[in-house]
Amino acid sequence: MTTTLLKNLWILTENVNRDLIFGDILLENDKIVSVGKYSGDADNTVDYSGDIVSPGFINTHAHVAMSQMKAIADDVSFDDFLSTTFRYDAERTEKDVEEGAILGIKEMLLGGITTFADLYYSEDKIANIAERYNIRMHAAWAVLDQEYTTQKGNPIDNCRRFMERIKEEKHELVTPSVGVQGVYVASEETFHKARELADKYGSYVHMHLSETRREVNEHIKKTGLRPVEWLDRIEFLNSSTVAAHSVWLTDREIDIFADKNVRVSHCPTSNMKLATGGIAPIPEMRKKHVKTSIGTDSVVSNNSLNMLWEMKLTAILHKYSKWNAEVMKAQEVLDMATIEGAEVLNSDHIIGSVEPGKKADLIFFNSKNVAFQPFDASRIISNLVYASDRSAIRDVMVNGKYSVKNGKLLF
Ligand SMILES: [Zn+2]
After folding, report:
1. Is there a single domain that holds both residue 174 and residue 202?
2. Which of 4, 40, 69, 89 could form a Cys-Cys staple with 27, CB 3.0–4.6 A?
């Protein structure tokens, strides 16, 4: 066992009281064992001299392997965006997928993302890269009806094989889950098979849901019901469901989310850049205690995998649209990016806060960076959300190991 003492830090604990304390963090291997003043010895000691530490950011909706496809379909209509993206995606080789994953994982680590929930195919290849570059990953193999897929073989069988393999190989940082592309390419039977698979492996289903008005309108034409109402009627929705986007929801559908404890990944940049209209009713969901978190989506619709930007946008988008600066406070969006992201991924017993017993997934911010000037402890959270960028990030640690040190990747 190796002990590491991280000294003299402003600690954004994200514990139940959201305590901000000045003190030390003691690690035993990959775990946090003490938070607060510590006067004992350790095998290694790092003196942070008044810098700031927060839990690592949790990006709850990504397609990291698409990172090579940045800027292939910018400033075009939604139809052109889709056709260009599908054309590129259908032609990609496994090497492209791996190179995309490396690029995206590097970008995420440099921006303090220590866990990401991915939705794609070839997740076995991406999982190996996540292990190699020391980032925690929830890997959802995307399933959809056979007639729509570009995957070799049957998507459900591919997903099952992937989950079995991850279980056998005992990946330390990778948690497998089941992905569903969306109601527009998945039948009732596919949804039930996806749920069966998730239940069998004690996992959850990660899916796109009610992202665009077209998706909703076409589903009404096909089934007579809105997507969330339909998923409720086929008894698919439960607390092991992560719904990305969730923009076009009625009050009744928000009530269904609350009732079934569905979890949500809010992707503000992706929604705004694609101009799909509407604004996800995040404040309304939060009022009804729906668990909400933040996702970047892919670089095709975002161009960046930067949770600091997503956090600021989440705060200011909802303030602006509601004409109310009191909604989506800085503390709330930090919660969404950390402990609430962990709750959305059913992982809050492992990650999401700086507390004894949790894994050491940590971001260290340079308190002398211009974003935190003038330095005042009471302004740390506001400055983190509204003023800081990646240049303020000094070190990033995942599972007790540094992935980034002094702003540079170690892997
Ligand atoms: Zn997506």
Report:
1. yes
2. 4
Enclosing domain of residue 211: 57-344
Q: What is the pLDDT of residues 186-239, one digit of tens each?
A: 999 999 999 999 999 999 999 999 999 999 999 999 999 999 999 999 999 999
Structure tokens at 218: 């076409």
Q: Are residues 93 and 29 in the same domain?
A: no
Cis peptide before 227 (omega within 30 of 0): no
Q: Which of 344, 370, 388 is at the close of a domain? A: 344
pLDDT of residue 96: 95
Q: What is the Å distance from ligand 1's center to 144 Cα?
A: 14
The pLDDT, as a whole number, for residue 90 is 87
Which residues lie near ion ligand 1 (Cβ < 5 Å)? Answer: 297
Q: What's the 63 CA to ligand 1 centre distance in angstroms?
A: 6
pLDDT, the chain, mean? 97
Question: Ligand 1: distance of its center to the CA of 300 in Å?
Answer: 10
Lowest mean pLDDT among 65-74, 142-151, 230-239: 142-151
CA distance 57 to 115: 7
State in Å: Cα 265 to ligand 1 middle: 10
pLDDT score of 124 more than 90: yes
DSSP 150-215: -SSS-HHHHHHHHHHHHHHHT-SSEEEEEEE--TTT--HHHHHHHHHHHHHTT--EEEEES-SHHH
Tell me, yes or no, whether 374 and 281 share the same domain.
no
Question: Same structural domain for residues 28 and 159?
Answer: no
**Domain identity same for 377 and 308:** no
Query: Could you give the number of structural domains in the chain?
Result: 2
- Report yes or no: 13 and 353 within 8 Å, Cβ to Cβ: yes
Mean pLDDT along residues 308-336: 98
CATH classification of the domain holding 27: 2.30.40.10
Claim to verify: residue 70 and residue 17 sit in the same structural domain: no
